[in-house]
Write a structure and sequence with these properties.
The complex is a heterodimer. In chain A, 33% of the residues lie in helices and 17% in strands. Chain A has helices spanning 18-27, 54-60, 71-87, 107-117, 132-142, 159-172, 189-197, 231-237, 285-298, 316-330, 341-344, 351-365, 461-464, 469-485, 502-515, 522-526, 532-541, 556-569, 586-595, and strands at residues 3-12, 96-101, 149-153, 178-185, 221-228, 264-272, 307-309, 337-338, 402-409, 413-420, 438-446, 492-496, 546-550, 575-583, 603-612. Chain B is mainly alpha-helical. Chain B has one domain (2-83): Orthogonal Bundle (Non-ribosomal Peptide Synthetase Peptidyl Carrier Protein, Chain A). Classes of the chains: A alpha/beta, B mainly alpha.
């Protein structure tokens, strides 16, 4: 079954819509520059900001300009509206699902108002839009999709590609008719300082794959694709008697964007490098496996790929590791590769979707985006496609047909997509897969900090010294559940968390607000992303399999179990470790009390090992 | 110098959460990194860089500069003595 791209929307540093983005890409014009909208003391750091104020974005969405809304939700809503307009589907009576990749969620608002919220009840409701799930809900509402089901995927910088993967899986499983998948992330002082504490930000414009590269530049933006089952389905859905042109800018040459030829999500892979929380392995194992999976699903050989849109952040470690992985997959015959982060900056959770849309533009308009900033060959890196080869080269005979798009995140959450203008080559007829049933093999629960002493059975003092409370609880419940189930290394690891690493994030944030943006702890930041738990468990178990994190409020576990069940039923995993891990802090509990919300427990960690059922009993009920 | 070494040991122990390492066992000349000595890693380097800035006003822009400085507690102490701003 083919997954068709019916439309797309994009907003980032190089343009507020697809027309502008295409023009910038073709002109080799970067969007990275001095900080203008973000209120940080690190003015020395160049960033790729969306060139709109919050008030301007609110106006574009027909909202009150003085409203306080996160840029994450605003940019996301703008890009979704564009994508829906572009797709022009008749969605009446259809099951629509919005799948969003984000990590910082409403952090840009929280960091501005947290101190006042401690006193001011009037501002407190802003905190209700902070977590990823609420941020996604708000974005969907602003985009006019109040009735749509929403889900947030949070695997750090690969979030958006994993959102597209989940959307494709749901369509294949018949769980949705139309999926809007992608990601959004606003610049925040929180993650700017976090990346700065890891010393991986370049004070110059970034230089992916260059010998003298010295880090990344952060960016912001949002992009979404509208996905449907297959060509036939999307043609049926398409609104009749109306032009299906992009209508976001009056001056746009809309004929350029009409999806007169079909585009497909041909294949994908989600793997874990299982190496280190903030570094990639030397041989790029996770990236290698993700690319291989994507090619295999697409039914393509490496030689069939005409362009690679690399993750290419510009850090010494990522680019060398990714190059090693690309060399392993493609050998001597590496197709043109470029990182477009020299245009957009590293848009973290949104980058997978922004680069998917850039890849789609390349396919539609038959050009190769250049790798801005590259000057000198590094032995450890591939030679990217750059200005000195040929700017704006155009494929005369429409030979650009398949693109591989890489997206990697902290903790080694590595994913890859193959996007193509041809449907999957019709190989052997797809065999109806043997269906399995999922059941619970074992589970373990940790709710008390006193239980954490049991961790010593599994973890040395040296390993534990850096682990936060929730990390300890999640590791303990996971190891206990796996032991009970007699499973050494599960085929997949999936985490559900409403608030993620609350304690470490709150410490980092409070330190930043009280002591300024200079001496912040990298250890706290590297344990702030939601996917820290799943990836740390994968690192412990050396588990290179599927690795996923859901953060959709109280629905998080339901999404995680749905995913796990799908993996087992379709035979792609025999065992899946699913965890629900959440924590609170005293001040967070106080906020909840003041808001009249249920007060969450200080610590809750429940791990379940799912496996194939051998009988009809004990089927896991969601 | 002896006092500075003692302070540094306490600060490093606290910021890196080295609970099991007693000050008596914390050898001033033991290699901080690698399997032979204390066994610290690249994230610890970043934490020590933050520590030096916070406590002694020393700013290291590039973690690579730290390689020679962070060999042992003694080399750190020598560097701090020469470069401290507070």
């Amino acid at each position: 079954m083919d997954i068709t791209v019916a439309g797309y929307g994009i907003i980032c540093a190089i343009g507020n819509d697809a027309t502008a983005v295409l023009a910038s890409l073709k002109a080799g014009r970067t969007g990275i520059g001095p900080m203008r909208y973000l209120q940080s003391s690190h003015k020395e750091l160049p960033v790729g900001e969306v060139k709109l104020s919050n008030a301007e974005m609110l106006r574009m969405l027909g909202q009150d300009e003085s409203a306080i809304v996160s840029r994450t939700a605003l940019m996301g809503a703008i890009a979704i509206r564009q994508a829906l307009q572009h797709a022009h589907l008749d969605t009446k009576g259809k099951r629509i699902v919005v799948i969003n990749g984000t990590t910082v969620g409403g952090m840009d608002v929280t960091e501005r108002f947290l101190r006042q919220m401690r006193e001011d009840d009037g501002l407190l409701p802003l905190l209700e839009k902070h977590d990823c799930g609420s941020s996604t809900r708000q974005m969907a509402d602003l985009a006019g999709l109040g009735d749509a089901e929403v889900c947030t995927v949070s695997t750090a910088c690969s979030s958006a590609v994993n959102a597209i993967i989940l959307g494709s899986e749901m369509l294949k499983a018949g769980e949705a008719d139309v999926v809007i998948a992608g990601g959004t992330e606003a610049l925040s002082r929180f993650h700017l300082n976090g990346f700065n504490s890891l010393m991986i930000l370049d004070k110059e414009p970034c230089r992916p794959f260059d010998r003298n590269r010295a880090g990344l530049n952060l960016g912001e933006g949002a992009a979404y694709v509208v996905l449907t089952h297959s060509l036939v389905k999307s043609e049926e859905l398409r609104v009749k008697n109306k032009s299906n042109n992009l209508e976001c800018e009056d001056n746009s040459d809309s004929s350029l964007f009409t999806l007169n030829s079909s585009l497909y999500i041909c294949g994908y892979g989600n793997r874990c490098d299982a190496f280190h929380q903030t570094a990639s392995s030397e041989d790029g194992e996770g990236a290698y496996l993700a690319m291989c999976d994507a090619l295999q699903m697409a039914g393509l050989r490496p030689a069939d790929i005409h362009y690679i849109n690399a993750h290419g952040t510009g850090t010494p470690n990522n680019d060398a590791s990714e190059s090693a992985a690309i060399r392993r997959v493609f050998g001597q015959k590496i197709p043109p590769v470029s990182s477009t982060k020299g245009f957009t900056g590293h848009t973290t959770s949104a980058c997978g979707a922004i680069e998917t849309v850039i890849s789609i533009l390349a396919l539609q308009h038959q050009f190769l985006p250049v790798n801005l900033g590259w000057k000198e060959q590094d032995e450890a890196c591939i030679r990217p496609y750059d200005n000195s080869i040929l700017l704006n080269s155009t494929f005369k005979d429409s030979s650009l047909k398949a693109v591989l798009c890489n997206s990697f995140g902290f903790g080694g959450n590595d994913s890859a997509l193959v996007i193509g203008s041809l449907p999957r080559p019709s190989q052997e007829e797809e065999q109806p897969m043997e269906r399995h049933r999922a059941c619970t093999l074992a589970e373990a629960v940790v709710t008390d900090t006193e239980q954490l002493s049991e961790l010593r059975e599994f973890v040395t003092a040296g390993e534990a010294r850096r682990m936060s409370r929730l990390m300890k609880a999640a590791t303990l419940s996971s190891m206990q559940a796996l032991r009970k189930a007699g499973v050494e290394c599960p085929d997949a690891i999936i985490t559900a968390t409403a608030y993620g690493m609350l304690e470490t994030s709150a410490k980092f944030l409070t330190d930043m607000l009280e002591n300024g943006e200079e001496t912040l702890s990298p250890t706290l930041f590297m344990q702030s992303t939601h996917n820290t738990l799943s990836s740390a468990i994968a690192i412990r178990l050396r588990c290179h399999g599927y690795n996923m994190t859901y953060s959709q409020g109280s629905d998080s576990l339901r999404w995680a179990l749905r995913d796990a069940t799908r993996l087992i039923e379709t035979g792609r995993a025999r065992t899946v470790l699913v965890g629900l891990h959440d924590e609170a802090t005293p001040s967070f509990q106080d906020f909840c009390r003041r808001l009249g919300k249920p007060v969450p427990p200080m610590l809750f960690s429940r791990s379940v090992v799912l496996g194939r059922s051998t009988c009809d009993e004990s089927v896991y009920h969601v | 110098m002896e006092q500075l070494i003692k302070d540094l040991k306490l600060q490093i122990k606290e910021v890196l959460n080295l609970e099991e390492l007693s000050l008596e066992d914390f050898d001033t000349d033991a290699p901080l990194f690698g399997d032979e000595g204390i066994g610290l890693d690249s994230i610890d380097v970043l934490e020590i860089i933050v520590l030096l800035e916070k406590e002694y006003g020393i700013r290291l822009a590039n973690p690579k500069e730290g390689k020679a400085i962070f060999k042992s507690v003694r080399t750190i102490a020598e560097y701090v003595q020469q470069n401290r701003k507070k």
